Structures are given as C-alpha cells and as structure tokens.
Amino acid sequence: MDADNLAWQMSTENGRQFVAELLDLCGAGALGGTGNFATDFYSLGRRSVGEDILRMIRGVEAVGTDGLALEYKMLREHKKRQEQEEE
Predict the structure, then answer these.
(1) What is the pTM of this model?
(2) Helix (H) or strand (E) holding 62
(3) CA torsion, points 39, 40, 42, 43, in degrees to nearest 10?
(4) I need a labelling partner for 54 at 20 to 30 A (CA). Which of 28, 36, 68, 79 fits?
(5) Among candidates 1, 10, 2, 20, which has minimal Cα distance to 63?
(6) What are the residues whose beta carbons fall under 8 Å from the beta carbon of 42, sequence distance 6 or more?
(7) Tally of domains within the chain
(8) Contacts by 58-65 with C-beta closer than 8 Å and gap 24+?
(9) Cβ atoms within 10 A of the Cβ of 80, count?
C-alpha cells in the first residue's frame, strides 16, 4: 500500500469512512478468540492486515497533521456514525 495514497484517503471524510469500515471488517483491535483453532487463525490473519494498515496510518505525514491525529479523527467520525445509526 502506497503511503501517499493512504494519506490521500485519510485526508477526506469519505476516505476515512472507507478505511474505518475496512478496519472493522479486518477485526483490527479485537481481542480474544473462539477456541477453535481454524477459526482463530483465520481471524488472526484478517486482524494482522488491519493492524498493518493502522501502523501505516500512524506513519502518515499529511500537510498540517500527522497519522495519529488522522486516526483519532477517523475513529471519532466512525463512532459518531455508529451512534447515529443506533438512534
């Protein structure tokens, strides 16, 4: 994944929404397992992709901000969308 392309994605609200949904799909940040060997290894593989994407986001240096600030902004926006969907 190209860092410039990721920075561009993270610079727009739609891009951050896409990345947040992708990270959810990957299970990034999830803990625990089912106890089923095959299921857990499959989930760990998906999660590792999400964690790699998060590391890349944290390394982004965009104009006027850094990757960690973009990650927090993405998470706040994602949480707000989820709360609105629950209403």
Answers:
(1) 0.83
(2) strand 61-62
(3) 120
(4) 36
(5) 10
(6) none
(7) 1
(8) 59/3, 60/3, 60/6, 60/7, 60/10, 61/7, 62/7, 62/10, 62/11
(9) 10
Joined together, the tokens standing for residue 56 give 């890349």
86, amino acid identity: E
Please report which confidence band the pLDDT of residue 10 belongs to, taking 50, 70 and 90 as the band edges: very high
Helix then strand count (H, E) for the chain reads 4, 2
Kindly state the tokens that stand for 39.
Answer: 């299921």
Q: What is the pLDDT of residues 47-59, one digit of tens each?
A: 999 999 999 999 8
Determine contact, residues 60/7, Cβ cutoff 8 Å.
yes
